[in-house]
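Note to self: keep these together.
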Amino acid sequence: MLALTVPERLALKGRAHALNPTVIIGNAGLTESVLAEIDQTLKRHELIKIRVMGDDRELRATFMETICTALHAAPIQIIGKILVVYKPNPDADLIPIKKMPRHKGNRLTKKQLAGRG
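Structure:
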């Protein structure tokens, strides 16, 4: 399983927000053909959403762990029935992971803010 730092994961969460699910895990569960399709989609897109049709939370967490360990991918998040997975493709290099911008610490005090208005 690929490990990411917290800022990298947060940046990928932001990028995944606008994505639609590309793979659906149906009632048959996580079969070899579904796992192969997830692998092919990760090679093309690097960051994907996967919809799980079951209602069991533990089963969705198990699917996420199985997918990430089998494909050497990174789990980004689970939102309801949606799994977000990332696997970098060095050949495609589609998504550059940038660090989140940090605040410089030059915050104004309440007195300084009041003097501005």
